[in-house]
Every structure is written in structure tokens, then in C-alpha cells.
Amino acid sequence: WMDLHGINLPLAFTGQEYVLAEFYKQLGLTEEELQHYFSGPAFLAWNRMGNIRGWAGPLSPAWRASQYFLQLQSLEYMRALGMTPVLSGSFSGHVLQALKKLYPNISLRPCSPW
Questions:
Q1: For 78-93, what is each residue's pLDDT tens digit?
Q2: At CB < 8 A and 24+ separation, what contacts does 27-30 make?
Q3: Fewer CB within 10 Å of terminal CB in the chain, N or C?
């Protein structure tokens, strides 16, 4: 539909929770700590903007991985149609409260679950 209507710069957000989770795990956070951060699938837009955290979650590791691999397929199709997908590469500025245990001197402002 997008290609037929001349859209050649689609926003491709799917799967970014997988990338974030892998990054946070490399820092030393646990899966349990991640579960308190990611909102459920219906609320990911608000979670990505930093408005909420953990609402209607958690997202299982299997779900995050499935979305990541779905995104890889989508990107392949978009590129095959001559589109240039726009991936989320910017940092929105909100992080897990659990980072305090790794970096005790950081200053964080708490966000309400909703």
C-alpha cells in the first residue's frame, strides 16, 4: 500500500525492544529488571516516548525476539520495493531505574507507571 501511494521513507519501529534489552543485558541488568521496564504490546508507543513503563507488560524474551526477526523481514521487503526505511536510532532519554545499581551516582527522575 505504501509503495503504491508513493511513500518511500517508512518509519520502521518494530523490534527495537529486543535491541534495547540486549544492550541492557550487556550492561549487567537482569531479565527480571527488564520486565519492569517494557510495557505490553498495545502500549509500546507510549513506552517508547517515555510516558509510561511496565504498563500491561511484561514482554517476554520470545516476543521481543519474534518482533526483531519480523522487522528484519520487513526491512528486506521495504528495500526490495525501493524504499529507504527509517530506523529508530535516537535515544529518547529515559532509562531503567535499575541502572542505579550499576551506576549509583547517576541522577534519575522517576516516571510513574502511567
A1: 999 999 998 876 667 7
A2: 27/99, 27/102, 28/102, 29/96, 29/98, 29/99, 29/102, 30/98
A3: N
